[in-house]
Amino acid sequence: MAQGRPTLILCDLINPVNDRTALLVRSAGILIESGHIKRIYHHVSNGLQKEISKKGEVLDRTGLLAMPGFFDLHFHWVQEHVCLMPKDSLLTWLKNYTWPLEKKFSNLNFAKKEAAHFQEKLLRVGTLGGASYGSVHGHTVGLGLNKFLGHFVVGNVLMTMNSPSYLLQSEKEAQVLTETLAARYRKRYAVTPRFAPTVHPSTMMKVALMAKRYKTFVQTHLCETKEEVSYVLDLYRHFPEFRHIESYAEIYGRTGILGPRTIVGHGIYLSATDIKWLLKTKSIIAHCPTSNAPIREQGLGSGRFDLLQADQKGLRWALASDVGGGPYLSMFDVIHSFVRQQKTTGRANYTRGLYRATAAGAGFLGVGNQAGQLRSGYQANLIFVPTPKRRGGEEAEDVLRRVIDRKLVERESFNHLVAETWWQGKPVFSMLGAK
């Protein structure tokens, strides 16, 4: 596939437009040049195919359905091996499984191998952008950014208190490392206080200033479980300057952590004060339905995200896998869980799930004008999955339902649903063989 030569792909496609609308085109043609989508044809004539084949190539992907590559707004690339570990509670799962695993990433050779493996998994499930947590070790940032193909931001978690000795940093160590990485990677970096219990407020204040100075992203966790919320408030009320705090988000607000480039994971147990802080600062929630799902569904049993409240208040949110709290990396699995959990609210469907797993996340990461949708002028970052047989009068929602809706015991099959992944006009993963 020569650079700059046009490529016409024959396929079906679904393009997410917004929460309510996705465009379905059967027998479409996607014309790609120089890594970008030049045009989308709703009908492809034999004459057009002959014209393109003289200058470039025509690829037959009939029987496949194209969609934008996914954006996963909250995942821990260093936690893959604890995805399916027992999850009796968030805090015990961290202590017993997650933190011991993250200790291994101090070994650079181990970290390199894991990064390469994780990149293969990202391509296999069609994730081409998102926000990721490394470990406390600085090299997990560079490895992620250099290995992961797509629009990713990565941060090293900060742990300066209430943490196991083998991961504990001094405040100075955390601050120096953060500034070094923020200055090096800037908009590709995320200042990452793991969550309030593991970071001194003085450190959070200083790294928040660094985030503003270098225009980085910020990511952390917020109100994931009732146990966590109580623990955080009890802990922080022992700090004189936080004695009278009303909510979890107030801690982040008063330390400067919140803002329009801040992504907070979960946000399940939000008080009225939490919501005020999120709205005031335009912070973003990464909603992680598979991680928050009941323990019997391999989640942490944290609870259900209040989608009605998010809609009514106008909160900014997108979908995320939260691997390793979430059991599977596939955003198809996340969309499936999102729709299933919100069924009784009447506010979720597959169209909305697809939009919140693609265009919404791209927009929050500042690349919504070049990725997250199939549009002329956008990067040709797309995935292909088997397309259901045609049925008269069906719309995008009907097709998406037939692609995604399946029994819980079949969830693991989402990891193998993507037939091909393209990045900037080139296939980077394929189950189709040479074409």
The CATH architecture term of the largest domain is Alpha-Beta Barrel
Strand order of the largest sheet: 3-2-1-4-14-15-16
The low-pLDDT segments are: none
CATH fold assignment of the largest domain: TIM Barrel
In CATH, the homologous superfamily of the largest domain goes by the name: Metal-dependent hydrolases
Number of domains: 2
List the helices and strands and how they pair.
Blueprint (H helix, E strand, L loop, with lengths): L6 E10 L5 E12 L2 E6 L4 H10 L1 E12 L1 E7 L13 H14 L4 H18 L1 E7 L5 H9 L3 E5 L1 E2 L12 H15 L4 E4 L7 H14 L2 E6 L3 H11 L11 H8 L6 E5 L5 H10 L2 E4 L1 H4 L14 H7 L2 E4 L11 H11 L8 H7 L2 H6 L17 E5 L9 H9 L15 E4 L2 E5 L5
Parallel strand pairs: 1-4, 5-6, 6-7, 8-9, 9-10, 10-11, 11-12, 12-13
Antiparallel strand pairs: 1-2, 2-3, 4-14, 14-15, 15-16
What can you tell me about this protein's structure?
With 435 residues, the protein is an alpha/beta fold. It has two domains: 7-68 and 374-430, Roll (Urease, subunit C, domain 1), CATH 2.30.40; 70-329, TIM Barrel (Alpha-Beta Barrel), CATH 3.20.20. 35% of the residues lie in helices and 23% in strands. The protein contains 15 helices and 16 strands. It has helices spanning 46-55, 90-103, 108-125, 139-147, 171-185, 201-214, 226-236, 248-255, 272-281, 289-292, 307-313, 331-341, 350-356, 359-364, 396-404; strands at 7-16, 22-33, 36-41, 57-68, 70-76, 127-133, 151-155, 157-158, 190-193, 217-222, 262-266, 284-287, 316-319, 382-386, 420-423, 426-430. The strands form three sheets. A seven-stranded mixed beta sheet has the order 3-2-1-4-14-15-16. The protein has a six-stranded parallel beta sheet with strand order 8-9-10-11-12-13. A hairpin with a 5-residue loop joins strand 1 and strand 2 (22-33). The radius of gyration is 22 Å and the shape is globular. The N and C termini lie close together (10 Å).
